[in-house]
From TrEMBL, chains A, B:
Residues 3-290 form the Carbohydrate kinase PfkB domain. Pfam families: PfkB. InterPro entries: PfkB_dom (IPR011611), Ribokinase-like (IPR029056). This is Sugar kinase. One of its GO terms (cellular component) is cytosol. Coiled coil: none annotated. GO terms for molecular function: kinase activity. Keywords: Kinase, Transferase.
Length: 315, 315
């Protein structure tokens, strides 16, 4: 089952206590695509400039990612520069050059139309909605957003939320979106805004899934109790976080890639997807940029999945 | 198997967004004792003043806690006043009156000497060491500490650490003690200071256990791989945290109470103890002070244990 992802493809320059990387291929859609590519076929929609060369695109295509939806236009690609020197948990933005991303108009190739899974990475909710409308037949739509859209583009975002099977955001975003500092209450409020399920990412503490009665349409009434208990997947404690950039997008890629690979959506599949999300995030932060995500194999992924189980399971 | 706990017994006045409680019976040894009392016999060592009346002591004795080690002296009991109005995750101290606690000299009743488990709650490491030395035959000693002792009484604390089977502290204390902001590296450094195992509490995100080759003396060589993977127990997301005071001490009580009740120390027992710690912490914060801890039964505890399993387990 293939996934279409729309989002940013960018160059990042990042410094962390472990070192520095210059203009590596990054952006939410890149991290998502690479992480999901280990589970299913991924098709990307984005925009890049003249500085985005075949060698850059090859990072995606070598992993089998379909890049026919990557629009090459004149100008420079989206560029971000950040530092984690002060705090590994929060990037300090040193430069943001939107460049060609500023006038991004997603174009969906005809070949993408049979995809049944759609991921709306963190972009203008107006564009998220547009892509969503252009693919009315998808079975499942998940999405991300950020504080900028929550505070400044609320009405547009609310329209997107109504159409989501799952919203994936972090703690701070969830509390801001709900206007409530308590995570349980915030989750209940967000689920009332439309998403059938909510995944809140906690960085080094893992992620929590919150369900609603709309989460699993075919669920037997006798199993309805599973909806009332959130599900918490751990993150892997690492002795060196080399570069935290892209951990959340890699989580989303692992999560949604695994879901798409399974076909049917059950609580058990959703929970395993949460673990695969954590697994892919843990690989990403072990190296700079997408370096680690480019060279994995399924066996390493399964071994780490087993590690996540050992980390969190009583037996 | 009975536990001796030495630590503070106090009166707390606490305000939180949920309300306010005046001079309730509190202190680390109180929370610990009540939480552990659902698993095993508990014997407390502490000091109280003339304001500590039979009705206050009854909160402990009704739960079967042996209070013969509670020294009644002239003066007022330890009093603490705190506010969580600004931040539910961190108390703002409004008043600390050590009173009789200032000249606390632990006295161990002869009847306590056959206890095989000892918990050194957060007090001056000189007193922790003294109690530890007075009970040379205990099978297992766990302890807590805080920033004040870590920064100002380091040498004394280091002597205590050498004798601990497990140290239970929070994230910030672990990073301060190790002088390292990375939790995995901090844990490794702390285990080198002496504790056989380390439990780091993350508040609403649960707790993580770190092991060493000394954690489980009888462990088969073929099972040594379990020592290399930390174990993370979740905390229960709650829609209202009424009063976070005592959550960490209740965790310690549930954790050590369960360990003591099991007799043998295996990785499986340790991991279940981590869950019981989280369970008892989750009850404590549902009401003010020790209110909830006074009126539990083992059936409620087992039901919540099952909830913790559902919250974190794939199947």
């Amino acid at each position: 089952m293939s996934i279409v992802v729309v989002g940013s493809v960018a160059f990042d320059t990042v410094e962390t206590p472990s070192g520095r990387v210059e203009r590596c291929v990054a952006g939410a859609a890149t991290y998502f695509s690479l992480a999901a590519s280990y589970f299913t076929q991924v098709r990307v929609i984005g925009v890049v400039g003249e500085d985005f060369l075949p060698e850059h695109e090859a990072i995606l295509t070598r992993r089998g990612v379909d890049t026919r939806g990557l629009d090459h236009v004149s100008g420079k690609s989206f560029f971000w520069q950040g530092s984690y020197m002060k705090n590994l948990n929060e990037a300090q933005t040193l430069a943001t050059e939107l460049n060609v991303f500023q006038s991004f108009t997603p174009k969906i190739p005809a070949e993408y139309r049979d995809s049944e899974y759609l991921f709306l990475a963190n972009i203008d909710p107006v564009l998220q909605e547009e892509v969503r409308r252009s693919m009315p037949d998808v079975r499942m739509v998940c999405g991300d957003t950020m504080n900028y859209w929550i505070t400044g583009h609320r009405e547009n975002l609310e329209r997107v939320l109504k159409g989501l099977d799952a919203l994936l955001i972090n703690d701070g975003e969830a509390k801001l979106l709900a206007g409530d500092g308590n995570l349980m209450r915030a989750a209940a409020k967000i689920l009332e805004m439309g998403p059938k399920s909510l995944v809140v990412k906690h960085g080094e503490y893992g992620a929590t899934a919150f369900f609603s009665e709309r989460s699993f349409p075919g669920l037997a009434k006798s199993d309805a109790h599973v909806l009332t208990v959130p599900f918490r997947a751990p993150a892997l404690p690492l002795s060196e976080v080399v570069d935290p950039t892209g951990a959340g997008d890699s989580f989303a890629g692992g999560f949604f890639g695994y879901l798409a690979s399974q076909g049917e959506l059950t609580p058990a599949v959703f929970k395993r997807a949460m673990f695969y999300g954590g697994v892919m995030g843990s690989f990403t932060v072990e190296r700079f940029g997408t370096e680690r995500l480019q060279q994995l194999d399924r066996d390493e992924i399964e071994k780490r999945f087993a590690l996540f189980r050992q980390l969190s399971h009583l037996d």
